[in-house]
Amino acid sequence: MQYLKTLTFTLATSFILLACGASSIHKTRIPKEKPVVIANDSLAYEITILDIGFTAYLATTAKPEGFYSQNYLEARNRIWVINWNQRALNPSRFNRNIYENRIDYQTTIHYGYEVNYKLFNYFLFAQRKYKINLGGGFRSRRIN
Q1: Alpha carbon 120 to chain centroid distance?
Q2: 6: Cβ–Cβ under 8 A, 6 or more apart, which residues?
Q3: Residues 59-103: tens digit of each pLDDT
Q4: Which of 2, 39, 54, 110 sits most deeply, having the most CB atoms within 10 A of its CB?
């Protein structure tokens, strides 16, 4: 009887050890997100956004194109670009990993709806992701 208990214990222990060690670790590849390019070919203007998650944000969370008027987008973008650029120029006070580059957004140039729409949504995305407030009436709990 003692032999049977020892054999059962040995087999159970071996089975547990083999079961734990036998499974191979599958490395799941997360596909790289393609950069979002904001461009207006007629103005030779382009912004490339490499921030991970922005493509998904545009596809799932952002309001559809046409939801906001171009005037609304331009007004928000003017405020947010000013605040963004002030922070980009002051890396000792603000996270230089967030504000890596200045944005050259001139109010006298008409960039078109698509450029304004994507820039606006990037600012919404960045404010949510990095928990920052660029001013202009943004609320952190706001979806968009």
Answers
A1: 13
A2: none
A3: 999 999 999 999 999 999 999 999 999 999 999 999 999 998 899
A4: 54
